[in-house]
Structures are given as structure tokens and as C-alpha cells.
Amino acid sequence: MLHLSLIGIGTGNPKHLTLQAVEALGAQDLILIPNKGAGKDDLAGLRQAICAEVLAGVAQPPKIVEFDLPVRDPATADYRQRVDDWHDAIAEVWQATMAAHLPKGGRVGFLVWGDPSLYDSTMRIAERLRARVGMQMQVIPGITSIQALTAAHGVPLNGIGAPVQITTGRRLRDHGWPEGCDTLVIMLDGDCSFQSLEVPEEVMIHWSAYAGMENEINIAGRLSEVQAEILATRASARADHGWIMDIYLLQRLT
């Protein structure tokens, strides 16, 4: 029997791991770390560094294995189909890697960036495995990039009694500002979709890149005044590191 633990590890800072996450890491037989390829191997390296720090005192530490993450097929026009096919391919790689390193079963851990529940498909991929093999699953929450963002800027997430909407850059760009909400958290935005807003002078932005990490970058102000700085800083940081993770909070000024 396989027992799969999806362990939220926060945003790359080992100090963000909960005691539950630390305990779970030490209890595994195998830890699998995805490698997204050249230019993004920093992410695998950060996971390796977290394991090295957390597992230093464990008498029988788990085996750590990196695997190559399949690439999403850009040729499929339908976005949902493209994602579903990609998740199927990842599940197949998981299954093959587990079978190769734990042929008799055991405890397997995946280190999930942030929290497994928030804009992460690890649980969906795991459900595909449950349909194929006998497997139990445990999900351990982690600090999210939203928490790291608001902490970095020292701002509350919402106004008093007011709603917040968490959405993606693609939806902001394609559908505009959602009705009935003056505060948005934008994730997964590779195109800096805040540029699509018609009245940027009426919007406050709190932007963070590498939130919670040692190389964290924070910029805040009226969107009309800091937009150019964010674009330039983001481009420079991505060129320096080969990848970037950023997130931002938008608030209408009333």
C-alpha cells in the first residue's frame, strides 16, 4: 500500500514550514522532487535545500529522487484539455517513479509550493493515481504566497466586512475587474495583466516577487505611478534567475 503525503512547504523559506510539515518530511520513505528543466532548476534546488535542513537530524532520512516534469503541449488549442492531458502525463511519471523506487509500497512525500489547496493541481494529479493504484493520501497545509504578500507589505487582505476575490491574470485580462469586489489578489500572471486596467490611477497595487524568499522584492503604490517600475524590476529579476514567481494585491481607491 502506498501512502502519499502532499506537504505544503510555504514559499521557499524553511522557517515557514509548520511542525506538522517537518514531522511528515521525516516520516517518509521517499520524497519526490520535480525538476522543471533548465532555467527553473532553482525550484528543485530550493526543495533540496529545505530537505537538507529539515532532515539533518533524522536517523533514517528518506530517499530523495528528482524526476523530470512533463512539458505542457502548447499545440492543443483548448486550455482545459491541454491542462488535463498534462496532468495525465504527470500522474504517469509519478506512478512510474514510485514503482521504481518503492516497488513494495511505502510512504511517499511531495513538497508542494505554498499550500496544496491554492492554485496548485497536486491534489488533482493525486486523484488520478488513486484511480489506478491502492493509495491513501494526507494533505498538510502550508503558508501561502497570499500570506507572504500581505505580511511583506504589512497590509490586511480585506477591508472591514468587505469581500476579496482571488483570481488569475488571464481572467483579469480577458474579463476585466469582477463586479461587486474592490479588492483582488492576482496569481499566475505571466503577462502583467494589470496593464489592461483602464483607470490605473484609481488602483493601489502591492506587488511581491519571490514572496517569503531571501531574494524577495516588494513594490507598492498607485498603479499609474509604479507600473513601469514593476515591469522593469520583474523583467530584470526574471533574467537574473531564469524564472519568477510573483503575486499582487489590487485595491480600488474610493
UniProtKB/TrEMBL annotation:
Keywords: Cobalamin biosynthesis, Methyltransferase, S-adenosyl-L-methionine, Transferase. CDD domains: Precorrin-6A-synthase. Pfam families: TP_methylase (PF00590). Residues 4-226 form the Tetrapyrrole methylase domain. It comes from the Bacteria. It catalyses: precorrin-5 + S-adenosyl-L-methionine + H2O = precorrin-6A + acetate + S-adenosyl-L-homocysteine + 2 H(+). This is Precorrin-6A synthase [deacetylating]. It comes from Tritonibacter scottomollicae. The gene is cobF.
